Every structure is written in structure tokens, then in C-alpha cells.
Amino acid sequence: MNYPTLTTLLLLFLSGGLPIHGEEEPLFLATPLTRPGEFTQGIEGPACDRAGNVYAVNFGTQGTVGLVTPAGQAGLWVTLPQGSTGNGLRFDRAGFCYVADHTGHNILRIDPATRAVSTYAHEPRMSQPNDIAIGPDGILYASDPDWKAGTGRIWRIGTDGRVSLLAGDLGTTNGIEVSPDGQTLYVNESVQRKLWAFRLGKVFRVGADSTLSDKRLLKEFPDHGFDGMRCDVDGNLYLTRHGKGTVVKLSPEGDILQEIDVLGAYPSNLCFGGPDGRTVYVTEVAQTRIVQFRVDRPGLSWQRWQESASDVEASIPPGEVDLVILAGQSNAVGFDANAAELPSDPNDRKVLFWWRTGDPPPDIHDTTSGGVWTTLRPQPVGHAHQPKDPKNRQYGNFGQPLGGFGPEIGFARTVMNRQPERRLAVVKTAFSGTGIARDWDPDAKDEAGACYRTLVGECQRAIAAAKARGILLRPTAFLWVQGESDANATDAPLYAARLKHLIASLRRDLAAPALPALLAVNTQFGLGKNTHMPAIVEAQQQVGAADPQAVYVDTAAATVINPFHFDAAGTLDVGRRFTEALFRLEASSPPP
Questions:
Q1: Looking at the structure, do residues 282 and 335 belong to the same domain, yes or no?
Q2: How confident is the model over 361-403, as pLDDT tens digits?
Q3: Which end of the chain is more exposed for a tag (fewer CB within 10 A), N or C?
């Protein structure tokens, strides 16, 4: 919401501590997610992506969108075009983020893969818009209050970006939502403190203004204003009470089921997220922060994320697709490859992508694609945590607050740009600070084999998920970026034998005896001060020379950001080098 006197509404209410999610958490008890002051008093419009990250407008300054991880790490995601100020946010099933730009009279659209901002719809007759809802058919609905006049309107934005007026004789329209069955549109009036329900029917005329039908008063309150609201999967409405400092849960019939204190007087909006869709995130103006609480039923938006998980697979026609597998340690993860420096490429949406990456051992704190196929993209930071015993190794999924990317993107983009007819899928399973004997041992049944077992398991699950939709994945290449952790007096002499055994084991376990193996390591690891790095390079060269289906890939020219990791440009370069190596290998031994 954008009240005209928002800057006067500061209420000092002190609360501290960051939560740790778990099954033992009580329901409907709010705790802070972010610290006060990270957002401006224009904090609004929370929305969650498929990975569980929370987005809200006006991070640090007006005209921005911030990203907050489930652990509460906040960072700048997007700066909107000059003159635009965001309010409500919504993600569609394809992953695009829509922004109610209340100063520019626009609905903006952000591509999450590139963070490119475009104007999806513009309507100069709008006073704002304020908040947006999205129906199961992809139609957007925008509330549009005129605070000075005390009136409001509702607009419909079609999937073609065309805008039409649905209702124009209302009070100060604010929170807006569509019921789970797509048949009811809810809108509240902040000043009048009324919540209305309308029937959505097939009454729209393309190119002309239209009206809603069956308007009925669902609930009226005697005090305090309203703001954003969202539905759970059962159709219950969660409504922010601006000025009272609560979120009220209403049944579809308008009965009060619960009221939750949100640790600040001015909640502005909310969304559902978390691994099971049962975490509610609330933007709160007085403390300029996001708070969270657990609920008993998942949110509607979360459910639609799950329903759309198969959309990517469904968009790929049945048939054979080349499967490329990426594994290794932090330079396979892309630990310091800043996603903000990644240029856009339309080919990303043509590549199937499945990932699990993090720190060892593989666990619930990894960042993953959720056990579903997505399209090629940077990976979010997820919910990494410091282990009780770090074992003198690196921890954390990525070094950048917005996540990162590995060589998979440079590899896939080069393949698709050079061979646009090729059908490609990538499975990435990488864990920072890992060594072959310590983490990737194919024969170990304990933690020493955890990363290898996860690699095989993720590949098998990804192959099965694709096969269920008629997509047959053919293992085509294994990209291995690892060796830095083995650059020591104990492990370096044994590296060649261990790597040879790992490759043979993977070929056996994936039933791909001729699987090409492309081998790389950050040759600049330690910036010349690690005396064992030449032995690792030599070991990879030996394996490549002895195996007709293996190739050593030289990364010496790739740029680095520190003594340990490639930077974004270097990571892309490593991916391109993998592609060139694969093309040379394929040309020298063409398939029968």
C-alpha cells in the first residue's frame, strides 16, 4: 500500500533474534526475518519464488526490489527504471515477476534469469496501480486507489498486456486476490474497512471496458485500515490490518478464524512460502522489516508453483535429449560467480536444468531445483548454515547474497549458440571444499561417499522425472571441476588413480560405459603459492591421455576473483572451454 502520509507512521517496537525453522515451531507466532532498516518505509509487496526466496520492494532506497533468503540475508535484486516505484509483486507460473509500479502507472515484468525489466502494461488512466493478483489462467488484476478522493477501481490485465476496467465505483481499493478455483475476486477498501467478493465470469470483451458481477460484502471491520491479502489452498484469506498490527485469517464466508500479532503496527502486505508453503512473510512498515510466522495450511501461490513444476518438462517435446552432468567443488558450484554480472541469453529457456549444490555433506540446507526440472538459470543462495564442525573447509552455498552460477551456463549457452538444433539437459551436483577421498569416494558407505551417492541419485531422479514425460535423457558428457582440495602432500600423489576410479564408477552406475569425461581444475588456486597444484594438473592430464573418452581442459586463462575462485567472467569462460573440448572430442570420435 502507498498511503500519502506513510513517513509519519513510524512506531518504535523493539524485537530481536532470527528464527530457525523446524517442525517444533508453534503456529501463528511471528518472529523477525530481516533486521529493521534494511528496507525503506515503502516496504511492500512480498512474493516468493519457487526456491523460497522472498522479494519485497524498496530495499535500501525507493525504486528497488530486494531479495531475502529463507535465512534472512537481504540484498538488492533489481533497480527499477527511473520514475518507477514498486508496490505489489507477483510471480506467475513461468517464474516472471510482475510489479505494480504506482508512480509510473505500469505493470512491470522482471525476467528472473536476467533481471531485465520491461513494461508489461501501461494505463495512463490509473491512479497508481497498488497491488496485483493473478488468476489460474494468468490474468492479472490490479487495485487502483485514489487516496485523495477516497475512491478506487479494479483493472484487468490480459495475457497480452491489454488493460480493461472492471469496476470503477469503489472505495480505496487495496488488497486483491483470486480464489483457488479462479471464480471469485476479492478486494478490500482500506479507508472504508470493507472486504468485497465479486464473481469472475466470462464477460470480458476484448478491447473494451468490462464489469464484475455478483458483488457481495464479505466482511466489514469497525476500526483500523486494510492492506495486502492472500489466500491459502483452502480459500481462507489472510488480511493485513494496517494500524492494528495484525494479520487476520478469514474463512471464505468471512468468519474470523485467527488473528496474529506481527510485531509492528503497520503490516503492509504478505505472501506464502517456505519449503512446504506454510510460512507467511509479512512486510511491516513501522520496523521496516519482514516478519514471518508458520501456519497450518499452504498458500495458494505455493501450490501453483508445485502445479507448474512440470510445465518445463511439458514444454519440451518427447524424444531424446542430451544429458550433461556437472560435478565437483566450489568452482563447479560457482561460489564467487556473481549472478548480477550474468548477461541475458534467450537460449537459457531452451535448456532443461536440475541442480543440487551447497557445502558438504549434502543435506536439507543445499540449494536445489526442488526435485523438478527447470530451465537454465543462476541458483539462489538457499538456506546455508555453518556446520558444528567445519573441518577446516569452506561452507555456504554461494559467496554472493543473490546466489551464483557454475560453468554449466557458459557451457550450455555455447552449445546452443553453435548448435541451436541440439536438445540439451544439465544436471548439476556440486559441493564446495570437497575432495575425492573425503567426499566423492564411490565405494564408501559413510560420509566419505555422500557426494558421490548424491550425484548418482540426483542423476537417476532427474532421468526418471524426464522419462515419465516421454523425454529420454542420453548421458552425453561428464564435466568435472575439482582438485583444489586434493592439492596437498597426502592426496595429490593418489589423485590420478582416484579420479580414474570415480569416472569408471559413474559410467557403470549410469550404464554409460563410453561417457565422455571433461576434467578441469582452477590452475590458479593459491596464486602460485600451492606447491601441489602442478601435481593435480598433471594427474588430470594423465587421466585424459590414458582414456580415449576423457579430456583435460586447461583453465589457466580464466579470470579469478581471489586465490580460490573464478569470477563471473572466468566461470563463463570455463564453461565455453568445456564446450570446445566436447566438440573436438565428438568430432574425433563421431557416434555410429
A1: no
A2: 888 778 888 778 888 999 877 656 565 565 565 666 788 776 8
A3: C
